[in-house]
Amino acid sequence: MENKTGQYFKYAMGEIFLVVIGILIALNINNWNEDRKLNIEEISILKDIHTDLKASAEEIKRNMDYNTDTALRARKIINHLTNDLPYSSELDSAFGKISYWSSPYLTFSAYEALKNKGLDIIKDDQLKKDIVNMYESEFAYLSQDYDRSEWVLAQSVVYPITNKHIRRDLNSVAMAVPNDFESLKTNNEFINMLHTIVRFREGGIDRYKLTQHKLDNLISAIDKALK
């Protein structure tokens, strides 16, 4: 009886051991599957962010090119006015674009999806920090602070002054002529407005360049993470 009891006990312990091992294996498989799902989800969201960032990079370049052009045109008018140069038809487009600038329309959809899923889905802490900084700081500044300052300048200063001194072409919104070009040469209010436009525009371009540099580095970092 003692021998049989000992055998039954060993058999029972063996069964328990096998059950425990089975449970641990199942748990490990489950954890592995969960980790695999998270990895797939991380790769998917990084690919989406990568695509959006490249689209935003193209938008930033387009903004910089357009705003650089408008700043140069404003400088051309300043040069003619301050150096007492005669009016030229090439200034028609410069006067037409005095109140124009390019607003940044950046893509936030993938980043919003990341926030909904949880930022911790991205394992690399530095990469996660750089992505958050790009959207919450760099993009936020361009699309809110900088663009808002341009709108305020346009509505409070540029529109009231240009409406008094410039006549727009009915056939082209990008063309305009001054009502009295010669009088503008001694109009300090008009010249000061041009200087303010150039200062705002070129300051914005400098910020665009800084963001573009950071954006290029972030896109490269995501490329490495995906590889």
List key phrases describing it.
single chain; 227 residues; mainly alpha; two-stranded antiparallel sheet; 6 helices; 2 strands
Describe the structure in brief:
This protein has 227 residues and is mostly helical. The chain is built from 6 helices and 2 strands. The chain has helices at 2-82, 91-96, 109-117, 125-165, 181-184, 188-226; strands at residues 166-168, 176-178.
Describe the protein in words.
This is DUF6090 family protein. Keywords: Membrane, Transmembrane, Transmembrane helix. It comes from Geojedonia litorea. It contains 6 helices and 2 strands; from the N terminus they run ααααββαα. It has one domain. Strands 1-2 form a two-stranded antiparallel ribbon. The chain is rod-shaped. 22% of the residues are buried. α4 runs antiparallel to α6. It is 79% helix and 3% strand. The longest helix is centred in the first third of the chain and has 81 residues. The model has no long low-confidence stretch (mean pLDDT 89). With 227 residues, the chain is an all-alpha fold.
